[in-house]
Amino acid sequence: MFRKYLGLLSFILVGALLLGACSTAATEEVVPTAEEAAATAEEAAPTAEPLSGTLQLAGSTTVQPLAEVLAESFMEANPDVVIEIQGGGTSVGITSAGDETVDIGTASRDLKSSELETYPNLKVYKIAYDGIAIVVNPGLDIPTLSIEQVRGIFSGEITNFSEVGGPDAPIVVVSREEGSGTRTAFQDLVMNYKDANGETVETPIVESALLQQSNGQVSTVISSTPNTIGYLSFGYLSDAIKSVAIDTVAPTVENVKNGTYSIFRPLNLLTNGDAQGLAKAFIDFILSDAGQEIVAQDYITVK
Question: What pLDDT is recorded for position 127?
Fold first, then answer.
């Protein structure tokens, strides 16, 4: 009797051990190492295709130097991308984008209603703000002018620098050509004004002005021609010319930011329809923190 009981007990114990072992084997989870998990995730994640191709930009000579610096940084990060940038003026940028003869047009002003009627699908991407400075030949000593004096000079009403505290010398006005975004902005911000009734008075630029096709040409003419005065994008200011304060406020990025200098305008990129592919990638880069850091070196950021 005792032997039967002992045998039964042994059978029960062996069975319990086998059952426990099977249960442990069935429920035990194999945990991968951190390296194995990372490798699995990397294999499962989609691989982004490297950017490649060519982008063509054309338009504003104000936007051009900024776009070139941004393009250089973008191409350095994407060696299979080529970005070609040409000037021509804001009007060229608008028509080129609208007619899709370039991937991206550039403009240094807002679009007119007539332009939007002609090209209703144009999309505007504001990438920066830029100031416009009044500049003179370095041989002139004109430390400051009022907006009214600037308007009088460029309209031809004031013809001698002695009338605004300068030397007794005839004024030679230098201006951008019709269609220039810089000229349009200067016209809107300086030459046009509100009268006592709140009506806009448009003051034309004097017909005798020496017209130039780019900011660079304006700078060259003023630096080399005595008694000249003109206006330029902040991006073209240099030691070769002398900038003039407006109501004692110097034309600087900081003064635009703090609201004391009011002659500035937007810099825009344009596409026909929403930007796609490589154009979108470039615009996204410009509007990113990294792109806006580049903008901040010489211009006013949009963020």
Answer: 98
